[in-house]
Amino acid sequence: MADYRLGFLGANGITGGGIPLATGVALAAKMRRNGKVVLCFFGDGATNQGAFHESLNMAAIWQLPVVYLCENNRYAMSTPIQYAAHVPDLASRAAGYGLPGQVVDGNDVLAVQTAVGEACRRARCGEGATLIECKTYRILGHSRGDPRRYRTVEEEAEWRAKDPILRFRAWLMQQTRLTPAQDRQIRRAAKDIVRQAVRFARTSPWPDAATLEAGVFA
Predict the structure, then answer these.
(1) Burial of 60 (0-12, 13-18, 19+ CB in 10 A)
(2) Residue 103's beta-bridge partner residues?
(3) Quick count: other Cβ atoms within 10 Å of Cβ 88?
(4) Residues acting as catalytic residues
(5) DSSP string for 9-25
(6) How far apart are CA 199 and CA 57, in angstroms?
(7) Given this model, what pLDDT does residue 217 score?
(8) Which of 53, 133, 148, 161 is the most buried (most CB within 10 A)?
(9) How far apart are CA 170 and CA 108, in angstroms?
(10) What is the mean pLDDT of the segment spanning 130-148?
(11) pTM above the 0.85 mark?
């Protein structure tokens, strides 16, 4: 769930729980002057948590090198965004803290890359944090037990047609940067990686019971 060697601090089981953690890491980066930028991912539901507002306020005051990236997939579990927020764009909330907020097509790989690249440039130049809202969609359910009765089949089909991987693949082929043969090779390689990971998980021994309390604090 985490790999500190890669700078990946891990997922969080609390809605919006990673936002204050990312803010703290950004403060550490600024104090150490190591030139690092923190990229924090969260969903639209997390923007209604108090930690979201507190963190953006602190990041603005201290001009922290952090990019807050909201993946607005329209549903917080089964709650439609229109029910939970009275603003059309969640990125507009950044203005209340004196931060820049930007809305991008979250299913456009190049648009997201450009927006995040500019936000990272600002952060490295000492210009502080940025809030980016990626408008996207969660094709499948929130979990395996999610029957998805809160939305229509037609809505899901509409968004399947906007799949970011398929769109980027089409763009690469139009730009003659990807051939059908290369595409098939990439897909085969990806499936092999997944199969190997599943095989490794199924054949690995159970953890030693002696490690049950390792890393647990109370």
Answers:
(1) middle
(2) 133
(3) 10
(4) 138, 142, 150
(5) ----SSTTTHHHHHHHH
(6) 46
(7) 82
(8) 133
(9) 12
(10) 95
(11) yes
